[in-house]
Amino acid sequence: MAAKAPRKPRNGGQNPDSWQAQKSASTRNQIVEAAIKAFVRLGYANTTTTHIAEQAGLSRGAMLHHFPSKMDIVKAAIEYLHEKRLTAFRRSVVEIPPDADRVKMATEAYLAHVQHPMFVAFFELSVAARTDEDLRAILRPVQDEFNVHWYKMAQELFPEWDGKTEAFDLALDLAESIMEGIAVSQLTHHEPRNVERLLEYLEQCLRELLNG
Predict the structure, then answer these.
(1) What is the per-residue pLDDT across 21-80, written as a single tens digit (0 to 9) for each?
(2) Can you tell me the distance from the alpha carbon of 62 to that of 34, in angstroms, rounded to the nearest whole number?
């Protein structure tokens, strides 16, 4: 009687340890994304581990196997948010055609960036951190690291500002203040009366700083 051929592993012959690690990483991302959605939908204070587990489609016990506490999930969520924000903004700027109006299109990309649910989740956590010492202790160092990466990335994406450090710093601060101000106003239902006029004025200021 001929010997039976060995059964092919369900994971396609992949190393079991590697397959398990990928599965674990996928589940962790699933939990983190569920937490971010919960922060946006319910607010930080109202989000519990039970809510996150339900959003992720997991039992609370299964979720706590990957993240022993809510604060572990929060730290992972903040790091995930920052990585995604950097990647998304980089992609939007890189995709600007060489012959396009880079000031205008970069401004539009920034506005889209602060209107994305990822920014909403970050803003929710930032506000909550004002009165939550444990959250603030997690958020502050990660935010400081994000700011360093954000600045370096901006320098790389906008080489036309080379040699104009002071003007570049002012341009970034101005764009951040106006864009995030608009985003926060929209979140609190107090949107400026004429957003287009604000954006046009911002673009005008950026061109003057660039060409000055």
Answers:
(1) 788 888 999 999 999 999 999 999 999 999 999 999 999 999 999 999 999 999 999 999
(2) 14
Yes or no: say if 134 and 70 are a contact pair by the CB < 8 Å rule: no
**Is 198 within 8 Å of 181 (Cβ atoms)?**
no
What is the C-alpha separation between 100 and 102, in angstroms, rounded? 6
CB 139 within 8 A of CB 126: yes
Q: Nearest 10 degrees: CA dihedral of 121, 186, 126, 198?
A: 120
Return the structure tokens found at 139. Answer: 């958020």
Using CA atoms, how far apart are residues 177 and 175, in angstroms rounded to an integer? 6
Alpha-carbon span 177 to 146, nearest angstrom: 17
